[in-house]
Design goal:
A hairpin with a 7-residue loop joins strand 2 and strand 3. This protein is mainly α. It has a three-stranded antiparallel sheet. The protein is built from seven helices and three strands.
């Protein structure tokens, strides 16, 4: 289990465990399945770099190389036995043990006094609007998905919705406290 775990590596390994496929198809499926919110495939190069790492670590292997009419050559990958076992290990770990992550929003909150109270409130009010939009989009995605997908394929969207709702509630409360002067702002830079 020496390979470095990442959400993208886990996703790619999961996809080739479903069926052997080429890199472009992996990227397409992540987008088609609307998993781009949990796995970053915006940079195609990161997909290829991750595939190279999975190959180097012996977690996937080349099944075949295809050349169709006017298309570029495509390498089809499949998981190795070590890849299947590593995938199961990664999944158990990712589900059972919270990762130590460093998202931007808590970091910004930690240094909030850099801004004036009115600047902080205005920025947080903008965040409220974004969160409300995100919540609406998640509700629409969940409603659409529930019509044709088993729930197991929607649980990450359910989690995201709950997290966005919790953040929305927190930010609303903080904005109200800022508006009412209930946040001490003695620190000055």
């Amino acid at each position: 289990m020496s390979s470095r775990r990442s959400p993208l590596a886990m996703a790619l390994l999961s996809l080739v465990a479903e069926e052997p496929m080429h890199a472009y198809r992996m990227q397409q499926l992540i987008k088609e399945r609307r998993k781009g919110d949990v796995v970053n495939v915006a940079q195609r190069n990161s997909v290829y770099q991750t595939i190279d790492r999975l190959l180097r670590d012996g977690l996937i292997a080349v099944r075949e190389t295809l050349r169709e009419e006017n298309r570029p050559e495509r390498t089809v990958y499949e998981p190795t036995d070590a890849g299947r076992e590593t995938l199961r290990h990664w999944m158990r770990t990712m589900l059972s043990a919270p990762a130590r992550e460093f998202p931007e929003f808590p970091a910004a909150l930690a240094f909030l006094p850099v801004l004036r109270p009115d600047e902080a409130r205005a920025a947080l009010e903008e965040r409220l609007a974004s969160l409300e939009g995100r919540l609406s989009a998640l509700d629409a995605d969940l409603a659409e998905g529930a019509a044709f997908l088993p729930r197991v394929f929607l649980v990450e969207s359910e989690y995201q919705r709950a997290a966005v709702q919790a953040e929305l509630d927190y930010v609303r409360s903080l904005v109200a406290d800022l508006r009412e002067g209930r946040v001490d702002w003695d620190y000055r830079l």
